[in-house]
Specification:
Elements (H helix, E strand, L loop, with lengths): L4 H15 L7 E2 L17 H9 L5 E4 L11 H11 L4 E4 L29 E4 L9 H19 L25 H21 L4
Parallel strand pairs: 1-2, 2-3, 3-4
Helix pairs in contact: 1-2, 4-5
Organism: Sclerurus mexicanus (tawny-throated leaftosser)
GO molecular function, one term: beta-N-acetylglucosaminidase activity
Protein name: OGA GlcNAcase
Length: 204
């Protein structure tokens, strides 16, 4: 019936979206959902080009970044994805996901995401550790990053420059920049307070 997988997926997704009354949140995860799955690249992928052209504009598209688990996300890469999808993507962030190796737990701060990234996103979803309590630091530091991004959106850099050093360095060149180390320390203080509070509850 359909000449390609992309056209089949777009047709089914569009029909479902319209049948549901075009809801404000409708997410589509493409078969090629990160750069490493695209051939030869996101901007030259015939599959993604078709998805971007055929999928109704109200449907949001999920993207995980350069890889399934992306250590870094940059505005340059997201600009390429935005161009081929014809919309800003929703990042499905697998930075803390450990369902593929349950022997590991990720407790570091949210990092490796370029400052000013929110301007390139339609949203961000965090795929956490499978263990509930292990997600205090990931979610707490994500909140701190989000607050800093709100500040950068309110005061955008007129030159549109991206400071690569801010991905690894805790000191940014502008006021209110995100510091992974400071976010981690804040999360640890709040986590200790939470643990101490739980220890005082009856039956603990």
């Amino acid at each position: 019936v359909f000449p390609s997988l992309a056209q089949a997926q777009a047709s089914v997704a569009n029909e479902m979206y319209q049948e549901l009354g075009q809801p404000s949140v409708f997410l589509f995860c493409p078969t090629e959902y990160c750069s490493s799955l695209c051939s030869p690249s996101p901007s030259q992928s015939g599959y993604l080009q078709t998805i971007g052209q055929e999928l109704l504009p109200g449907i949001s598209i999920i993207w995980t970044g350069p890889k399934v688990v992306s250590q870094e996300l940059s505005a340059v890469l997201l600009e390429e994805v935005e161009g081929v999808l014809q919309r800003c993507p929703i990042i499905w962030d697998n930075l803390y996901a450990n369902d593929y190796d349950c022997r590991r737990i990720f407790l570091g701060p949210y990092m490796g995401r370029a400052p000013g990234l929110m301007r390139r996103l339609h949203g961000l979803l965090l795929n956490p550790n499978c263990e509930l309590q292990a997600n205090f630091i990931p979610i707490h530091t994500l909140g701190t990053w989000f607050q800093s991004e709100l500040g950068s959106c309110a005061h955008p850099d007129p030159a549109g420059m991206e400071t690569v050093a801010a991905l690894e360095d805790s000191q940014g060149p502008w006021e209110g920049s995100y510091s992974p180390q400071e976010a981690l320390e804040l999360a640890l203080r709040d986590w200790v307070a939470e643990i101490n509070q739980q220890a005082l509850e009856p039956g603990r």
